[in-house]
Design a protein that fits this description.
about 15% strand, 12 helices, Arc Repressor Mutant, subunit A
Length: about 300
C-alpha cells in the first residue's frame, strides 16, 4: 500500500483544517496519531513519547521549505515564535512587519539571565535532563577581558540514559565501559541576527567542545538569512539550535538537533573544572551518578 511522505502528511492535515493555525508540535502530534502505523519503527528508536515527538517537530521545521514548495497555499508565520502553519486556498506568503516589531519589543523585555531558569525547566520537563547554571564570575580571572565567555557555557546538563534500564544491563554497560550518561552544553543568546549569529555560534562551538551534545539557545531568529546561516554552520560543526518560547515552554523548538559525539573530551572537562567552581560541582554530581546510579534531586535544576 502506498504511504504518504511526512511532507505529504503535513499538507494533508493542514488542507483538512483550512484557515486554522498550528504549531509544528500540534502537527506532529496529529499526524503521528493519524498515521500511527507509519511511525511505529521510528517511535521504537526513542526512549519515550516526548523524545519521539520532539524529533518529528524538528523534522517538520527542517522540511518547511519543501512543504511550502509542494503546496504554495500553505502559509507560514515565521516570527514571532512559535512558527505557525496553515492552509488558505489561493494565498500568497507575505511578510508581517508588525509581528517582527512585536517580537523585537518582547525580546528587549528579557535579559539572558531571565532565560536560564526557563531553559532549565524546558530541558528538565521535555527532555528529562538534569541541569546546572555555570556562572562565569566564579571562574579564575586569568584569561583577560571576556576570556571566560569562550571557556564554558551558561547551562550544563546530564542525561542519565540508563535510569529505566534493567539493573543487570546497567552493570554490563558500566563494567564494559559503555555509555550510560551523556553530557550536554548550552550557550544562551537573547536573539540572533545577521550581526551576531556567527560570533554566537562559534562561542557555542568553543564552550561545548567537551560535551556529547552542544546547543545554541535563543528566543528569536531575526533577519532574512540568519536561519540559513545557522543551518550551514550546524551541518559543519554539529552544534544544535533551540528556539525557546518564553510564554509556553512546551512550544519551544529544537530547530536543529545537535550531532551527538560518542566520547566526552575529559581533558577539556578537567581544564574547565580547574577554572570554575560551578563546573567542578557539576562534574562532582556526574561522578556520584557514575559511581552509585543515584541522583540527588535537590542538587539539580537549581538556578
Amino acid at each position: 500500500m502506498f504511504k504518504l511522505s511526512q511532507t505529504q502528511k503535513v499538507i494533508a492535515f493542514l488542507q483538512a483544517n483550512p484557515q486554522q493555525k498550528f504549531t509544528a508540535r500540534q502537527i506532529a502530534e496529529a499526524i503521528t496519531t493519524q498515521y500511527a502505523d507509519d511511525y511505529q519503527n521510528k517511535k521504537a528508536a526513542f526512549p519515550g513519547e516526548k523524545e519521539f515527538i520532539q524529533q518529528v517537530v524538528a523534522e517538520i521545521g527542517a522540511q518547511k521549505n519543501s512543504i511550502i514548495k509542494a503546496c504554495p497555499d500553505i502559509l507560514m508565520q515565521d516570527k514571532p515564535r512559535p512558527r505557525l502553519y496553515w492552509y488558505q486556498a489561493g494565498a500568497a506568503l507575505s511578510a508581517e512587519p508588525e509581528a517582527i516589531a512585536e517580537l523585537r519589543n518582547d525580546a528587549e523585555s528579557y535579559s539572558e539571565h531571565d532565560l536560564y531558569p526557563k531553559l532549565m525547566q524546558f530541558l528538565s520537563d521535555e527532555l528529562g535532563l538534569y541541569c546546572l547554571r555555570i556562572d562565569e564570575k566564579r571562574s579564575k580571572n586569568n584569561r583577560g577581558a571576556k576570556g571566560n565567555q569562550w571557556l564554558h557555557p551558561d547551562i550544563v546538563a546530564m542525561q542519565a540514559m540508563d535510569r529505566q534500564w534493567n539493573e543487570d544491563v546497567r552493570q554490563c554497560v558500566k563494567l564494559g565501559s559503555g555509555q550510560n550518561v551523556a553530557l550536554w552544553s548550552f550557550e544562551v543568546k537573547l536573539a540572533l541576527n545577521g550581526a551576531n549569529v556567527r560570533e554566537s555560534f562559534f562561542q557555542a562551538v568553543s564552550n561545548s567542545s567537551w560535551a556529547n551534545e552542544g546547543y545554541l539557545v535563543t528566543t528569536a531568529i531575526m533577519g532574512e538569512h540568519t536561519e540559513e546561516e545557522l543551518r550551514i554552520l550546524s551541518a559543519l560543526h554539529g552544534i544544535g539550535v533551540i528556539v525557546l518560547n518564553t510564554d509556553d515552554l512546551s512550544e519551544s523548538e529544537i530547530l536543529l538537533p545537535a550531532k551527538r559525539k560518542t566520547d566526552t573530551d575529559w581533558q577539556s572537562v578537567n581544564r574547565i573544572v580547574e577554572q570554575n567552581k560551578d563546573f567542578e560541582t557539576f562534574i562532582e554530581y556526574v561522578a556520584i551518578y557514575y559511581q552509585s546510579g543515584k541522583i540527588v534531586e535537590k542538587n539539580w535544576n537549581r538556578y
